[in-house]
Amino acid sequence: MCYAASAEEYDLLYHQLLDTNAQRAIDYFHRQWHGSRGQWVESFKHEGETYLTSTVKRVELLSQQLQARLGKPADSAGLAEGLLRAVGGLRAESEGRDGQQQLRSLPAESGPVAAAYWELLTGYAFARVRRELEEAEWVSFLSAGPERARPACRRRALLTGTAGCQCAFRTAMKLPCRHLLALRRLRGHELYDPALCSPRWSRRHCQRDQPPPALLLPEPEPVPAQPPAAAPPLLGEQTPAVAATAAQQERYSQAYRLSQKLSLLAAGCPAEEFDSCLAVMTAVTNIWARGGQVQVTELNVTRPGEDRPPTPENMPSEVNNTNQNRV
């Protein structure tokens, strides 16, 4: 029963146990094992999408990261402020890593199938699929039908189809596994199929809330371990390196939130004004990229058909750099 390849196989073995009429053994099995079968039966252990990480491990890792950033706050107000700052910093780091991944190039030795998955998936998911593509060449089958096959597996009996597989990788990650890819190659199907991948692994899914690569900060270099000081720091005190990193992350979070609002405002402006708005934002970006400074001057201009006093919302702006070059 432990190695049952499907729910049907488990039920068959379970009813065989009931047919033995060994009441004490049946009662013991119901009391100790049947209710928790999702934890020890192979076909049940991987029914959910776990993405090869457990909730407990994710919570433990997040707790350790928060503790490292919070230090020892002096009071509850400091704890709340530090917690919000730490959460914002962790989010900014995650967004930065995802954005940096977008800038990496496809390995030169990759084939057309790998290139197609590269365009579709995030870097982490692509690395997993690329390995499965390589291992698919070595998969053999005990039996193979038109749409189903049983690959040779040392751990347990598997049932593989052209669109799904019972292996742990496929059921946990919702990505194409080596068994599925080997069967598709055997049957002449295309190895690349976006439907084989969970949408949560797509670049489009991850880019919904991500800043463009031009706005990403480089990852901070690791801080070397410091020898123990003669006297412990005061309660709530942070080292200069930690404080500088936290300040940088806070500035990035503030700038990122503001850039999101700016993008929404620009996208919602009238069509005839969008090009000029985009030109202003491009000019500001180019000036900052050259190391220059930007000054903003409001212009009191009333659009045709409007008869209302000027407000910050209806006053267009001119953008000048420090050399007073008109943009």
UniProtKB/TrEMBL annotation:
Biased composition (Pro residues): 210-230
Biased segments, Polar residues type: 317-327
InterPro entries xrefs: Zinc_finger_SWIM (IPR052579)
Region called Disordered, residue ranges: 208-230, 302-327
Name this protein carries in UniProt: SWIM-type domain-containing protein
